[in-house]
Amino acid sequence: MTMSIIKIFRSLLVAVSCILCSSILAQPTDGKATKETKALYKNLQLLLKKGTLFGHQDDLAYGVNWKYKPGRSDVKEVTGHYPGIYGWELGRLEIDAPANLDGVPFDKMRSYIIKGYNSGAVITISWHLNNPLTGKSAWDVSPANTVPAILPGGEKNELYNSWLDKVAVFFNSLKTKNGTYVPVIFRPFHELNGSWFWWGGKNCTAAELVQLWKYTVGYLRDTKNIHHLLYAFNTDRFLNETEYLQRYPGNEWVDIMGFDIYQKGDVLPNEKFIAEMDRSLTILTTIAKEKRKIPALTEVGYSMVPDSTWWTAVFLKSIEKHSIAYVLAWRNAGRKSKDEVEYYVPFKGQQSAADFFKFSSNKKIYFGKRTRQLDLYQ
Ligand code: BMA
Fold this sequence. Notes:
Structural class: alpha/beta
Strand content: 15-25%
CATH class: Alpha Beta
Oligomer: single chain
Shape: globular
Largest sheet: 8 strands, parallel, barrel
Bound molecules: beta-D-mannopyranose
Strand order of the largest sheet: 1-4-5-6-7-8-9-10
């Protein structure tokens, strides 16, 4: 008798706390989001109170001095753990290339994505899509009218739709063996306050970008019926709230809000980086809270990490006071040409490796194993 009263009381308590909890938590903007996508969105909000996922772009595909070795990961080799979030990139999918602009074959990418999801980690995808007006790269900012040209009524609208159709096919192919769609944080038109991509800064007006954003989300969600995406809005470095929000498409179109920032020894040395991160993360987390969105550091890094204590003395110091769901370090491309080497997480023997290990053991930073325990998709 007493046992069953306790049981009833317990279930009541659980029910009440669930109601309370779901009334405080925001839902994805896509009302038809799949169960797993909704769970991810809920759990990333809960995670804000505990800590931050650590992520890496192209982590399973290659690292410094290696490519496509099953199970390998620079992050794992230094810390003992895989990342908690994996970044991938779709550039050139739109032109039917077999591999993306950084050489990652889309077939391999698909299996890495499914593997990452099965391991309990989060997936985020960016898209450096070519300029649809010129057929050149995402960095081709020569025409002033690319954005209006791809919107309805524009000469390249049909072409742009056909590109979105291909992206839709790829997203729909991200399915587990039992048919579950892998939830993806899609991050189109990133760094949109800078002028280096055809969709950014002075290459279009704020109104045009907003229209493009809504059109793209609407097309994927409502025309193509894709419901396993969360949409991440992200700027590059910014000065203030006004600049950050200048091209914000509105609360019904965005799930996650972030920015990209790279430390550079001479232009943005340690002290300045820490101060800017603090200022920018304060602005970001304040806006995100007001709008009931999830804040994240969508791209970050210090190329070749030329500072042996950067991870704990600079990076951790600049994020630990702030509640952000994840940080994504950019790719370990390794040697790109005779004069260029690019990587953002250390490999074994690199000068910041020991400090990265120390960073990875911080309780607030979540790598693979501890991310799995968060059960983000339940
Ligand atoms: C940049 C560099 C490039 C790469 C691009 C898209 O930051 O890493 O080498 O092609 O991102 O991934």
